[in-house]
Structures are given as C-alpha cells and as structure tokens.
C-alpha cells in the first residue's frame, strides 16, 4: 500500500501528522502501509520553485494513493498565477486524471448541535456529493486576462465540458446511487448555460442504463437554498466542478464544520487522492487548533476506495465516532459540556480509540 503524503501548507502539516498516526497504528496491526512525503503547493514552490515539482509528480504517479493536507496561503497570493499553490492542486488532479470527487456530508449524531440547522432538520443526514473535478470553468480554454477590442482590460474563463467527461462522471454518480438509495439529483444551471444544458441532456441519456435510479434535476441556485432548507431530500447529488466546490462547502456546515468533511478524488481505476474538503486555514495555522477529523476520515476513504480495506476503513470511522461520543471537540465543533482539545489532542483521542 504505497501512499504519497503531501502535507502542503498552513494547517496541512498539522492535520496530516494526525492522519499519519492513525495509519501508523494500522501498519503496526499488520497493514503493509508505506508512506513517503513530498511537497505540493506553497511547500513545492518553497522547495523547488514550482507548486507541483517533478519530485512530487514522480512519487505520486508511482504511488497507489495520495494523502493531501491542504495548499495555499496569503504569502503566495502575489506570485505569478502559474506558481500559486492552488495551481499545484489543479495540476495534480489533472495529471492523475482524478475526475471523480466524492464529498460525503454525514452528520454524526453527537454534532447535531454544532450544525447550523435545527437538529430535527439534519438528524440522520447522509448526502454524497459527486463533483466532476477535471473539467468545467476550472480548466476550460481560453482563459486569461487581456485587453478587449475597445482597449479596456478584461478577464475571461471558459465553462466547457466534453461529452465523454460528462458521461464518465454520470456513470460514477449512477453507480454510487445504485449502491445507496437509488436517488440521484443532478445540479445544473440549464436555464442559462449551454454547458450545463448539455450536462443535463447527457445525465438523462445515461439514466436509461440505470432504470432503477430515480433521476431528478435542480438548478444550482435552488439547490443551494434547498440544502439549508431541507437537506435530507438529497441522497446523491452530481454536479460540475465549480458548483460542486461551492455546494460541498455549504453542505459541510450541515455536519457541524468544514473540519468534518473528507473527500476522495478518483480516477477510472480507483487510484485516488484523499484530502479534507477545506483549505489551509491560514487564520489558525501553526496554532495546533485545526480539526484533523476530515483528514482522518479522508484516510478512511482511502482504505475503502483505493485499497478495498473496508474493515480498516470502518475501524477508523468508528474511532472517530467514539471520540465524538466521548465528548472530545476541537474549537470548530465545540459546545458547552464537551472537552476542548487541540489538533494533536484530537489525534491522541483517535489513536486511543483505535
Ligand atoms: N484543497 C485545498 O487544498 C484547498 C481547499 C480550499 C481552499 N484552499 C486554499 O486555502 C487557503 C485559505 O482558504 P479559505 O480561507 O477560503 O478556506 P479554508 O477552508 O482554508 O478556511 C475557511 C474557514 O474554515 C476554517 N477551517 C478550515 N479548515 C478547518 C479545520 N480543519 N479545523 C477548523 N477550522 C477550519 C478556517 O479557520 C477558516 O475560518 C486559500 O489559499 C485557498 O485557496 C485550499
Ligand atoms: C483550492 C482550490 C483549487 C480547490 C478547488 O476549488 O477545487 C478547493 O477549494 C477545493 O474545494 O478542493
Ligand atoms: Mg473548495
């Protein structure tokens, strides 16, 4: 089980350290886990002058899976655009063809009060957001900044999807829906954007191969509203890169915190990159305050999706449930009556629960 570990920037190294401790326990108990670290993002720029250095590329291409902390930080925001940390993240996703991003928003019952919604609206929440990750306005050409025909400065990006890109993510989403409750909601803006009208058309076409799945469609603005009105109407949601980015951050708060939302980014063969959905949290970086659970839960997703180690994945997820039931909380999910712990303190608790 060859895992490339990319701590990245900001809180990245702190949360990755805790996930590594979890993997160390599993290794001691017999899983043949091999970990090797490399820099990505700002750390890549600092070490090699580019956000996705060749050293990192080689390691990640040779690995079975990649575990990533987060990238980015204000100190890098003034770099030339291609050198910015976030470009390193986009580059590795494209390089490894990680087109299917799974972001499960699950409410642990102990965190019902941490959710921004009333407990009765979110209790039992379990949504899987399937986000297309290597297309859309993130990658569409042309893009850039320049001067238009009138001599005025302008900037542009292109929302673009090919048929094969939409078909393959549709199959992933329908496949997941088949294993769950056979309900899939495709989120688009087909009333305005050709790209997503096309998306919707292809979703309807692929649906013919999955007659047991009930496919519905929703405009993204309504979906954003419905997620905070009545989120339990959703089971699996499938959407494009930018809508999925935004809706998954929104959904994270239904579960109590962005620090609880893991993710898997998969290629056609379940090789994957696993990372929390949040960023490098510069406001709390270096203070041992970050919630490491999204990263630890991402490691559990890695055990499940890339390595097929369902039992080990459940063991990690159950350890997370245990520490929440024991009352351990980092600041982002803290409530009166619970025990406040640091990032490493949460790691201690998870290791003890394992
Ligand atoms: N996948 C990634 O690596 C990724 C994702 C999102 C943003 N970013 C980058 O991260 C930097 C900061 O972005 P941002 O501030 O918009 O988003 P962010 O997710 O880093 O932070 C948003 C808020 O959530 C809090 N937060 C995030 N993760 C947390 C955790 N584990 N525990 C407790 N609190 C947590 C932060 O303290 C902050 O208040 C930017 O450079 C951005 O581009 C990277
Ligand atoms: C940092 C950024 C490139 C990234 C994205 O937009 O995909 C992040 O917000 C995420 O959700 O993983
Ligand atoms: Mg995001």
Short description:
By secondary structure, this protein is an alpha/beta fold.
Helix content bin: 40-55%
CATH T-level topology of the largest domain: Isopropylmalate Dehydrogenase
Q: Report the total helices.
A: 12
Beta-strand percentage range:
15-25%
Please write the CATH class name of the largest domain: Alpha Beta
| The number of domains | 2
Q: Helices and strands, in N-to-C order?
A: EHEHHEHEHEEEHEHEHEHEEHHEEH
The geometry reads as globular
Instruction: Report, as a whole number of angstroms, the end-to-end distance.
Output: 20 Å
Structural account:
The longest helix has 17 residues, at 12-28. The protein contains 12 helices and 14 strands. The model has no long low-confidence stretch (mean pLDDT 97). β6 (144-147) and β7 (153-156) form a beta hairpin. The protein is an alpha/beta fold. It has 2 domains: 1-99 and 269-354, Isopropylmalate Dehydrogenase (3-Layer(aba) Sandwich); 100-266, 3-Layer(aba) Sandwich (Isopropylmalate Dehydrogenase). The radius of gyration is 20 Å and the shape is globular. 47% of the residues are buried. The chain starts with a strand and ends with a helix. The chain has a 10-stranded mixed sheet with strand order 2-1-3-12-11-4-5-10-8-9, with helices on both faces. Strands 6-7 form a two-stranded antiparallel sheet. A two-stranded parallel sheet has the order 13-14. Bound molecules: nicotinamide-adenine-dinucleotide, 3-isopropylmalic acid and magnesium ion. Residues 11, 70-73, 86, 89, 258-259, 275, 278-284, 290-291, 294, 332 line the site of nicotinamide-adenine-dinucleotide. Nicotinamide-adenine-dinucleotide binds at residues 11, 70-73, 86, 89, 258-259, 275, 278-284, 290-291, 294, 332. NAD(+) binds at residues 73-86, 279-291. Substrate binds at residues 93, 103, 131, 221. Catalyzes the oxidation of 3-carboxy-2-hydroxy-4-methylpentanoate (3-isopropylmalate) to 3-carboxy-4-methyl-2-oxopentanoate. The product decarboxylates to 4-methyl-2 oxopentanoate. Its EC number is 1.1.1.85. Its cofactor is Mg(2+); Mn(2+).
